[in-house]
Amino acid sequence: MKGKKVRRIVLAYSGGLDTSVILHWLIDVYQCPVSAFAADVGQGEELNPLEEKALSAGADSIRIKDLREEFVRDYVFPMFRANAVYEGSYLLGTSIARPCIAKAQMEYAQELGADAVSHGATGKGNDQVRFELAYLSFDPHMKVIAPWRIWDMRSRSDLIEYARKNGIKVTSTAEKPYSMDRNLLHLSFEGGILEDPWAEPPADMYLLTEDPTKAPDKPEQVIISFERGDPMAIDGEALSPANLLERLNRIAGRNGVGRTDIVENRYVGMKSRGVYETPGGTVLLAARRALESITLDREVAHLKDELMPRYASLVYNGYWFSPERKMLQAAVDEASSVVSGDVRLKLYKGSVTVTGRRSQRSLYDERFATFEADEVYSQADAGGFIRLNALRLRIRSLIGLTP
């Protein structure tokens, strides 16, 4: 198979099985320089061998760009202002990283004068959509090469065999083929032995969170401070976005917080099982909602909850750079302008419990809420309020339309 002539390709490169094979395959098929691009969004030690691996495999060049602060500041935090959760459980850790990576990859491609970009996403998953919607948002003329949709290989076992035949060093094996994706927000696992939704994940699979049954027997308290919807400090210490999330991951992780095992609906139409570790994000979501409970107007809070599933679906489906997401973001950011204050939480063996919240912008007023005697609220007024709200129900009853 010989590909259509291109001048240069920039590959989104992770150094794993898929992109290691893809790098070799692109060079062989397209007979042009292939540059590797890796985004540091919090993978840690995984990035250390990438330069040597890519260049030894034939890459013309490699760029490893530190995007950790940008990722958390410009993608994770705006998404968390919306309290975005997909299908009730998934905190969108993989979904939100893709537009950040794709944007930087396209900038590198422009810098090199490349006319094609490539990625390692399969033709069955969501990431192909997320990457390519982002690519085409920045350059509608860029050629996109998606090997999984055009080559003859059909499984990761095929890739392992291809790597063996071509002397490509990879760490995946046929015995342990599930894939992992890590960034500062989460660590995801899918495929392989996890494809059976009845199979319990291996106990030694988790890397970010302690087994809740083995977590400390003493609860740990943490106070998170917010300004205009974004977390700014932990226990009074101001931290940058990436450093804050990283520290919260450690605190929550050692207390067994943040494990999720779900079957989700992919955008392409099939169901898939995913296991996720999102320790810091789980705590942040609980803290934000607690602070919103005293700072947001009732109708704003309710409307925001109505918009959240739509916002979450846009992120999950790859529409981060769409005008509709930006429109929703403007509404979310306006609502978040009053979300400032502190939240105290207790972490214990996998659970997160809010134990206090305070804010200078609080709408909670003890004078109105108290069950003791007060002089600011006349309970008798509630009678008229109820009768007015019951008017349409009374009319239905008067004409014989009973419940």
List the SSEs and their pairings:
Blueprint: E1 9-12, H1 17-30, E2 34-40, H2 50-56, E3 61-66, H3 68-81, H4 93-112, E4 116-118, H5 127-138, E5 143-145, H6 147-150, H7 156-165, E6 179-182, E7 187-190, E8 220-227, E9 230-234, E10 237-238, H8 241-254, E11 259-265, E12 271-277, H9 279-295, H10 298-317, H11 323-336, E13 341-348, E14 351-358, H12 366-369, H13 381-389, H14 391-398
Parallel strand pairs: 1-2, 1-4, 2-3, 4-5
Antiparallel strand pairs: 6-7, 7-12, 8-9, 8-13, 9-10, 11-12, 13-14
Description:
- The N and C termini lie far apart (70 Å).
- The chain folds into 3 domains: 9-67 and 93-174, Rossmann fold (3-Layer(aba) Sandwich), CATH 3.40.50.620; 182-358, Argininosuccinate synthetase, chain A, domain 2 (Alpha-Beta Complex), CATH 3.90.1260; 366-398.
- 39% of the residues are buried.
- The longest helix is centred in the N-terminal third of the chain and has 20 residues, at 93-112.
- The protein has helices spanning 17-30, 50-56, 68-81, 93-112, 127-138, 147-150, 156-165, 241-254, 279-295, 298-317, 323-336, 366-369, 381-389, 391-398, and strands at 9-12, 34-40, 61-66, 116-118, 143-145, 179-182, 187-190, 220-227, 230-234, 237-238, 259-265, 271-277, 341-348, 351-358.
- The strands form 3 sheets. It has a 5-stranded parallel sheet, with helices on both faces. A 5-stranded antiparallel sheet has the order 10-9-8-13-14. It has a 4-stranded antiparallel sheet with strand order 6-7-12-11, with no helix packed on it.
- The protein is elongated, with a radius of gyration of 25 Å.
- Helix 3 (68-81) packs across helix 4 and helix 4 (93-112) packs across helix 5.
- With 403 residues, the chain is of the alpha/beta class.
